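Quick entry between incubations.
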Amino acid sequence: MPFSSGEKWRPRAGFFKFSCCTGCGFELAYFQRSLEDTLKSFDFAFFRLASSSGDFDSLLDLALVEGTVTEPFQAVELKKIRKNSAVLYAVGSCAIAGGIPAIKAGGLELEIEKRAYQKKLYRLTSIRPSVLGDYVKVDGCVRGCPPGRHDLEEALVSVLLDRKPEFIEYSVCVECKMKGNICLLVDEGLPCMGPVTNAGCGALCPSCHRACYSCFGLMGQANIPALKDKFRQLGLSGEEIERRFTLFDGLKLKK
Amino acid sequence: MKIKIDYLGRVEGEAGVEFEIRGGKLRRLRINIWEPPRFFEGMLVGRSFDEVPDIVARICGICPVSHMVTSIRAIEKAIGFEPDENVLLARKIMSYSQIASSHLVHLVMLALPDYYGRSSFMELLPGEEALLKKFIRLKDVFNGITAAFGGGRALHPVSMVVGGFTALPDEGRIRGLRSGLPAAGEDMMDVFKTVSALELPDLKTDSELVALSEEGGYAVNKGRISSDMGLDGEEEDYERLFHEKEVPYSNAKKTAVRGRGALMVGALSRVSLHPDRLSESARKLALESGLAGKNKNPFYNIRAQAVEIVHFTEECRALLDKVQSGTALPKLRPKEGEGAALTEAPRGLLYHRYAVDRRGVVRKADIVTPTAHNYLGIEENLRRLIENNIDKPAERIRLLAEALIRAYDPCFSCSVH
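Done. Structure below.
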């Protein structure tokens, strides 16, 4: 029971990786500012990047899962993790939207695989990329590539306080306006994905004069056709528009 | 006796090791890199040249800057563009600060627990609380530099693009970054002492030390191929000098020097091939730590990393004095062409090559990463290490094996990609 024994309750957490760059793991373990507090507040029962011991089958208060599912064994593991965990958050664009590993889903997958392997091809077990939510119930999404600080801390704090998390669910435009940036899309005609992209990064790209490339993934109620129209008016070809919408969200738009 | 580690901890990405000792002989040793392939070379085809750096950054969560810089240089060569001097300075700052923070993570969080007989850094607390605080402070300084030049974040930076930077930090910010470096230098000397006090296992190997070489500097973002066995060539010669082979039991490929064999890339190769190109104090530390003169014991890689952090701290200081804040990003016109680039990532030699069509769409991509360069050598030298210690208890052999693999600072996500 939390706080009953006089000793501080440390929720048991696990961090799991599927197909991805491990950046979310690095963000959690090494990059974020509250590293020291995180290490001391949680009992990490499984976190391969940080510890060579650990129990994959441990019962957990919190499971954080990064990566896209691209192998059959990952789907089996994911279901196990779900069964063992009170709360499961998908972390990062790969786990939530498919991210970079899902670009492959937009083409002929065997052709794509052949460009990387010739001899070993018959031994590959790669399947069509899927997000975590295709296999299990996900309790929340810590968006971003890499995840933003607010949502990552919110994921941890909400478990410590045993309350519902409040993840950011509005567009990059909101953050951009709050920073007082001049709109790149309206004022300069740059093909900025800000209007349809989930916020959380702090409008990084527009703040350094670059069009948002949607690394946090599309937000829930994005008006995709409207932005595509706008891009067409700016003179972008159909192919160029498609590429912008499929860089991190190839799966969503296929459905 | 069978030893099997299914999922090696404290390394980037997913790999296992297995071997068998029977009748005092080692049998069937293999490192199985089961990290799933994401087929970057396949999925890059059809994407636009200016998307490539953002895509390849996601090969790796610890060295995204290296993949970005290497792809940017290869693509700029393909489309015939040459960036100005200030852009090159800013790219160096990005690379140097990233190498320093990547090394720090490896030294303190990944490698150190091996020498204390623990499974994670967390288990060294509260005894090593002071080291943890220094580590966090140092990480903040170096990540702060990468983030400031990278448009706000060190991991998957946003402002570094083909052609240059969409923005660079203003003068006040640059002065602020610079002012943090002297204190970082002092913290680093303490970390250096901790690392150099570690007793390293003995291991003689004959891997060829390979690193880039540049006149008048310590090569990172470009250079000629060089080795302790006389290898020499330009970036364009890469495929003539090296050979890549698929491995049936692993998703990573193995690279060898053509006609010779295993190579070793990374901090140890760089430091021991070119100690004379290090900053004065780093050079002194390298000599004192037994690194100069073609040291081929892979366990010394962690000392070489510590020396490099000292070197790059000083280099960053000098570059922050030189770099200008303003930037003008040229409008790039795609054209048909091919380009190859080699750089030194934190873990060693990194190769990217692209062919783009006249609209700037990628038609071919080839990437060979540091851990793919080291893979053959890691396996060979692991065999040697186990044979040297074959009479030791199984647990000791297992720990030594893990420590050797970790000493290379492998990145299995990169190696498969």
